[in-house]
């Protein structure tokens, strides 16, 4: 089993809980006020309030589930692999001052950055496009489309930012990246072959285990030290 000592409680799950609490704190008085002043429409106000609580931060909740599923898979790796989740890497080019990486795997055959998506639909796109398209079916059977950020572009930026940080701290090493769609209903169709591996539901663990680096990984201990340091700052 992989080393999971640096895995912490999912930040997205915590943000969902916070969002629900704030909606309850702020929304309850507002709902009460409206119900009191609009007694004929109390049921409408009540339904809106209920749905706002149930739907709070639904995207983050889905993302958290996807990351947890992926972690369960990665835990099957041998104990020579170390897992990290939700690492904030300094990046002055962003508004927040850092770039968040979903999952990082460090093993005897390399360092792997994993970008996790939990879309439950067919997703089409092109590696060069800014956005991809999710083809969804509504509760009543209606079909519609939504835009999703191109995960390959996201992944490449993450790999670049991490590589820069490690180089700056004398822990330079080659980093591989992979996109993993964790939902069982995910179906990915790209218009051309991807320059990075894109997996849906399975194949990620096998890919990591079978990966053959062109050059022997170096600075592995320094890389781990840097990731541990970043993890402590991220918590």
Automatic annotation (TrEMBL):
Lineage, top-rank taxon, reads Bacteria
What InterPro entries is this protein classified in?
NERD (IPR011528)
Name the residues that span the membrane.
19-36, 42-59
Please give one Pfam family short name.
NERD
Domain NERD: start-end pairs: 62-185
List UniProt keywords, sorted A-Z.
Membrane, Transmembrane, Transmembrane helix
Q: What is this protein called?
A: NERD domain-containing protein
